[in-house]
Amino acid sequence: MTLELDSTQLQRYSRHVIMEDVGPDGQASLLDASVLVVGAGGLGSPVLEYLAAAGVGTLGIADDDAVELSNLQRQVIHSNEDVGRKKVDSAAEFVAGLNPDITVNRHPVRVTSETVMELIADYDIVVDGTDNFPTRFLLNDACVLTGTPLSHGAVYQFEGQVTTMTGGKPCYRCLFPEAPPEGAVPDCSTAGVLGVLPGTVGMIQATEVLKLILDEGTTLAGRLLVYNARDLSFETVPINANPDCPVCGEEPRISSVSDGTYQGSCALSD
Fold first, then answer.
1. Which residues of the chain form beta strands (DSSP E)?
2. How many CB atoms lie within 10 A of CB 145?
3. Which of 31, 95, 208, 262 yields a CA-CA distance of 20 to 30 A from 177?
4. What is the set of domains in the chain, with CATH numbers?
5. Is 54 helix (H, G, I), strand (E, B) or coil?
6. Range of weakest confidence among 47-51, 139-143, 223-227, 265-269
7. Separation of alpha carbons 111 and 126, rounded Å
8. Could you report the per-residue pLDDT of 167-224, keeping only the tens digit for each?
């Protein structure tokens, strides 16, 4: 892929261009890539910031929430002046201010079985920055059905987890076949989260996305990375493909997102 950079771009991306494993072709791939970030909250904030800085050419932002004062403890792309505004608007303005090379698509809609397929259709990779099981299952199913790579992240108090699905198997339902019963897991507003934790997890998600685009290194496909901020420990747990998985198994029962059950009322982004 041929890359022609003007003097400003040459300065902006110089640290990529001089890398043997990125170089001009790798930067061209980044500029040509499109990524949908679902949730412009705690996880989506660092993902959007670092993908924009790296020069990922098209970023979609899907979120139907407005910025609240309680978000600012961890959702660092929003400011005090953004309270009350749509997150997609303040997030898009942040990206534009950081890197004018980036095309930003704003999707101020709730991700549902009626909207998800159209949302992901124009993107190479999807990033799950949501905070509830129904939306995670929905994004997983849609990405498996379309063969779209999906980066999953989750945070809870001092702990976080990250994995990468390639659009095939294993998938998120191989890891969690069913959502826990309602009320079994504290929701996003009552459990709390250490403010810096989504930053760590989100940056790992952004790293995975860049590796997928560049086709470099080994991703977390087939592995769940578990991070504990209390003692700064990381553990990797294998994820095995489940032959009975309802979406990627040998006899899948979900052939359309209309076949799944996706219930939940928690906000879209943590």
1. 34-38, 58-62, 103-107, 125-128, 150-156, 159-165, 223-228, 233-238
2. 20
3. 208
4. 18-259 (3.40.50.720)
5. helix
6. 265-269
7. 12
8. 999 999 999 887 777 666 665 567 899 999 999 999 999 999 999 999 999 999 999 9
Query: How would you classify residue 39: left for phi > 0, otherwise alpha for psi between -120 and 50, otherwise beta?
Result: left
Quick one: which of 68, 84, 113 has its CA closest to 264?
113
Over residues 17-64, the pLDDT tens digits come to: 999 999 999 999 999 999 999 999 999 999 999 999 999 999 999 999
The sheet carrying 150-156 orders its strands as: 103-107, 58-62, 34-38, 125-128, 150-156, 159-165, 223-228, 233-238
Nearest to 79 by CA among 63, 91, 96, 64: 91
Rounded CA-CA distance 113/116 in Å is: 6
CA atoms of 31 and 5, how far apart (whole Å) = 11
Gap between the Cα atoms of 242 and 247, Å rounded? 10
Average pLDDT, the chain: 92
> Taking a C-beta distance cutoff of 8 angstroms, is the pair 61, 88 a contact?
yes
Nearest to 70 by CA among 202, 195, 203: 195
Cα(49)–Cα(94) distance, integer angstroms: 8
Short-list 174, 162, 168, CA closest to 149: 168
Give me Rg for the CA atoms of the chain: 18
* CA 122 – CA 95 distance, rounded (Å): 19
Q: What is the dihedral of CA 79, 59, 7, 11, to 10 degrees?
A: 60
Check residue 66 and report its DSSP letter.
B
Is residue 130 classed as helix, strand or coil in its secondary structure? strand
